[in-house]
Amino acid sequence: MTIVYDEAAQTFHLQSRSSSYIMQLIKSKYLAHVHWGGKVRGTSPGQLLAIRRRCSFSPSTDPSDLTLSLDTLPQELPGFGGSDFRVPAYQVQLENGTTVSELVYETHRIYAGKPALDSLPSTYAMEAGEAESLEIVLCDSLIGLKAVLTYTIFRELDAVARSVRYVNESGRKMKLLRALSMGIDFPHDDFDMLQLSGTWARERHIERRPLVSGGSVIESRRGASSHSLNPFLALLSKGANEEQGEAFGFSLVYSGSFTAQVEVDPYHTTRVVMGINPFDFCWLLEPGESFQTPETVLVYSSEGLGGMSRTYHKLYRTRLCRGAYRDRSRPILLNNWEATYFDFDADKIEQIAQEGKELGAELFVLDDGWFGKRDNDKSSLGDWFVDQRKLPNGLPELVERVSRLGLQFGIWFEPEMVSPESELYRTHPDWCLHVPDRRRTEARQQLVLDYSRQDVRDYMVAAITNILQSCPITYVKWDMNRNMTEVGSALLPPERQRETAHRCILGLYEVLERLTTAFPYVLFESCSGGGGRFDPGMLYYMPQTWTSDNTDAVERLKIQYGTSIVYPISAMGAHVSAVPNHQVHRTTPIEMRGHVAMSGNFGYELNPALLTEAEKAIVKQQISLYKDMRYLIQSGEFYRLRSPFQGNDTAWMFVMEDGSEALVAYYQVLSEPNAPLKKLRLNGLNPDQDYLVYDADRPEDGEELFGGDELMRVGLKLPVWKGDFRSRLYRLRRVNS
Ligand code: DGJ
User: Fold this and answer.
1) In CA terms, which of 179, 445, 607, 732 is 20 to 30 Å from 280?
2) 373 near 379, Cβ under 8 Å?
3) Pairing relationship of beta strands 523-526 and 544-546 according to DSSP bridges
4) Is 601 helix (H, G, I), strand (E, B) or coil?
5) Active site residue 549
6) Residues 654/632, Cβ–Cβ less than 8 Å
7) Is residue 195 very low, low, confident or very high in pLDDT (cuts 50, 70, 90)?
8) In angstroms, what CA-CA distances link 125 with 148, 250, 319?
């Protein structure tokens, strides 16, 4: 890992373990992008960067050199108005109304370590030697705008973290109409684009398509990263698959509305820009003020999508997630939501917890309905005091009863919301997002609190602190069940109204920082109607996320497979629920439900008292097996083997970083008549070493010895099953060290 500036050639070379990111100053002014991809030793930038003169429709900024046109120059932070007609990364508006700007190089510095971003989540380095950073300052001296571009590379990983700080150094006000986090221009368009799309209960399905001329946009205008389109995209070389080919990943560390735009120009170059969605955004910069963008994390892999995912997993698991639980095994939880919904009292909860304890659960989570007068979702959000009708002796007594069983206690909040039917709303009707005299659109009978306001944030921190201090609670599920509408704030002046959505996200981050700092021993899990905010921004504060409200084992194969494209397994909450499944009414065997949920952060979401004795025995075994394997599942390297998007079978595997152990999960959705004999080629093993392979649920059936080369090149024989919804977990133990 090094960052080198070559004075003579005016090149910046960011060299990671096996990749290079190279930029060059053109005419000592323009910051051009030269290369991102496989590692190169030296740089002869004159040869690397190809530019040629085009027609008058791509004008030159230098009459003496008609090859130089911003419209065709590959750039790092493209602007608009001065001859680049492609999609820009930033745009400002001056007091005189004009929107033209041109940023040119001013200075740079290279230093060890990685800076934190002001008020925003980001990846980090624990020691200075793990990362190296480059700061390049671009300036438009005519209008007093500066952009400070920060790049960080990591010693162990082929990732580049990028962000920008826009600074108003003029003596006048300036508006940022567009303030994206990055731009990059590739010299060709020979890519497929991969994105993660969906909706509630169907999150992060994989979609792949070839690039075509013009723009491809993925974005959210919802005030949240959203179920619909995750703030991530990858460009893949043609034919790239899980194991081979080039993959270029772009992931935004942000939880609000975002955009990621890919534009192919007439010369078949590809521009990618990413950041806060400029739609309905505008940020006023007073003289001397600056605006920090969220971070984008760029990952390069020459080992296909699998290699890209493993880099994201490691970086996000170890250098984005924080806190006491970052490296700790996560507790197996039992959540009462699908067991009771709003209909419970202390006795019922204690009974469910007791059954859970007998089966081996470690943490009981009391979900929605314990506060205010919440018998359904029509009321009480904001009234974070216990419902004495359901829990007459208060929360401390219930926590005491559950703790006495030997279980930790966790609790649900939805702190960014208010029900119109609540004490809080009656007292503070102006504390929600709203626009004067206009309808306040309700969703799930609730409104969005205005987290841009300090008083709202302080109130909520105090309310949650009060509960968390009242009894030994070790886990919080932080839910958020609707998106922003009528985005206006009662406190912001007219010229700052379009800052509201981003200010709310900054407010959320502030609240999370305060609470996670005050309660460092509490495990926070983020949730938004399942995976409606499964993004790196939330992972910075909460190391796990409820992946989806859809707990059906078959649906979960796609959801968990898609989520694993970017996010580590330790981040994915996955629970076994009752059948028929509450979301799709499908009945799958307890074995398959367990095997799917065990490939994530494991738990149950049902009333164990309603299980048969035979099912209870299986659940007990699942829990004890998961306890034995969770270090491997939660921190091992993950390999996708068969895609649920391509057929009836799904398979993936986990390999310990030292190669000593592995776990293979194989699922067959529907039974096949007179099925062919199938083999499953494994990955990530050492071809020169031998492995004992056995059925994780039935080790007594015996083990077989195979070479790593056989398992990876010939494959593991798969069972032939009769009946739908079948699955098996295989454990592998390396015999020679
Ligand atoms: C949505 C979450 O995703 C569910 O798990 C549950 O907590 C409900 N909200 C409760 O209202």
Assistant:
1) 445
2) yes
3) parallel
4) strand
5) yes
6) yes
7) very high
8) 20, 20, 7
The atom number, within ligand 1, closest to the CA of 477 reads 7
pLDDT tens digits along 339-363: 999 999 999 999 999 999 999 999 9
How far is CA 17 from each of CA 77, 175, 242, 418, rounded to the nearest angstrom? 25, 40, 20, 49
Structure tokens at 72: 């065709």
Q: What is the mean pLDDT of the chain?
A: 97
In the predicted model, is pLDDT for residue 323 greater than 80? Answer: yes
Torsion of CA 590, 596, 600, 604, to 10 degrees: -20
**Helix-strand-coil percent breakdown of the chain, rounded to 5?**
25, 35, 45
Distance 349 CA to ligand 1 centre (A): 17
Question: Catalytic pick from 450, 549, 552, 697?
Answer: 549
Strands 544-546 and 572-577: parallel
Tell me which amino acid residue 352 is. I
Beta strands in 286-349 (DSSP E): 290-292, 295-301, 333-335
Closest CA relative to residue 312, chosen from 39, 599, 571, 1: 571
Residue 718 in this model has a pLDDT that exceeds 80: yes
Between CA 570 and CA 313 the distance in angstroms is 9
Rounded distance between C-alpha atoms, residue 727 and residue 651, angstroms: 9
Task: Please tell me the distance from the alpha carbon of residue 121 to that of residue 412, in angstroms, as a whole number.
Answer: 23
The question of whether 455 is a catalytic residue gets the answer no
CA torsion, points 12, 16, 20, 25, in degrees to nearest 10?
-10
| Tokens encoding 253 | 């560390």
Catalytic residue among 140, 185, 387, 479: 479
Domains of the chain: residue spans and CATH: 78-319 (2.70.98.60), 333-635 (3.20.20.70), 642-734 (2.60.40.1180)
What is the maximum span of the chain, computed from C-alpha positions, in angstroms? 85
504: DSSP letter: H
State the DSSP H helix or E strand holding residue 733, giving kind and residue range, or none if neither: strand 726-734
Q: Does residue 580 have a cis bond before it (omega within 30 degrees)?
A: yes
pTM of the model: 0.98
For residue 243, pLDDT over 90 is answered with yes
Cα 656-658-661 angle, rounded to 5 deg:
45
**Chain center to CA of 236:** 20
Residue 138 has pLDDT above 90, yes or no: yes
Residues 6+ away with beta carbon under 8 Å from 418: 381, 382, 424, 425, 431, 432, 446, 447, 448, 449
- Can you tell me the distance from the alpha carbon of 595 to that of 420, in angstroms, rounded to the nearest whole number? 42
Who's near 458: CB < 8 A, 6+ residues apart? none
Question: What is the length of the chain?
Answer: 737
Give residue 530 CA to ligand 1 midpoint distance, Å.
7
Q: Which atom of ligand 1 is nearest to the CA of 530?
A: 3
Residues near ligand 1 (Cβ within 6 A): 337, 367-368, 412, 479, 481, 527, 529-530, 546, 549
Give the Å distance between the CA of 529 and the centre of ligand 1: 6
